[in-house]
Amino acid sequence: MDYWNGKRILLTGGAGFLGSHLMKKLVKERGINSSKIRLPRSSSCDLRFFENCKRAVKDIDIVIHLAARLGGIEYNRTHPGSLFYDNASMGLNILEAARQEGVKKILITGSVCAYPKNAPTPAKEEHLWLGYPEESKAAYGLAKKMILVQSQTYRAQFDFNSIYLLIANLYGPGDKFDQKESHVIPALIRKMTEAMEKRLKEVTLWGSGRDTRDFLYVKDAAEGILQAIENYDKPEPVNLASCREISIRSLSEIIKDYVGFAGEILWDTSRSEGQHRRLFDISRACREFDFNPETTLEEGLKETVKWYHERRTDP
Known about the structure:
41% of the residues lie in helices and 15% in strands. It contains ten helices and twelve strands. The strands form four sheets. It has a six-stranded parallel β-sheet, with helices on both faces. A two-stranded parallel ribbon has the order 6-9. Strand 4 (105-111), helix 5 and strand 5 (162-167) form a beta-alpha-beta unit. Helix 1 crosses helix 7, helix 2 (50-57) crosses helix 4 (80-100) and helix 6 (184-197) packs across helix 8 (248-259).
């Protein structure tokens, strides 16, 4: 609580999925007056333009940069150029503006999509530069990776306090459930729900279902970000993940059960499923700022399904 006393905060992406949960934690758990938190909106403050970033960081002590353009596998396949440019330009601009304006500390959120396609499992931070990312999300991952380079070089040349987190696949209440931009968990919840309501006998999912992922509950991610700001001041990137590997096939069966769909799951192996394995080592986060994700996948999925069903308006 003392750490945040009197500090003025810029939270980019504050209206988004992760940002909304982080905002609640800042106010309710860290006791920060909401008037001390600046939330630039893309409609009036496009961070792809440097002058907007300069105005956004003026008189700010801490910047938390969450703003990003992202989506699922299909969105990444059809919009790689936009994803690369938008994410790189936002990150490069906000970090340089923060440096110029004398911001005391900035936290940049990266993505585990930056890891090499064939990274060892579980992936550690030192594996980040062993190869090229998996092609389906390479543009997004590389854009985020370039900002890590900027973060580290600014610390080396300007002694600028910039830290960088690599965040695993997020899920939880408030996620995007639309068909074009949703990630795997909200996409599965929506698909199973609609199949149940239509009394379908089967649903078809992409890939073989054998690929694996490491999913992090959004509230645990938000807490990890705050712990890092409070306790971490080093150039090395840090993984935030659950450190639990689950196949999409197993995940689908769990969601099927929680949603209440009684039909059969079929697999379309002609469709892309992305990287085959993803699991991340979180020992650095545990050691450096006592990160400990508390929500099990089963608990988090129940909360996410409940949230979606309570707010769904398009059956």
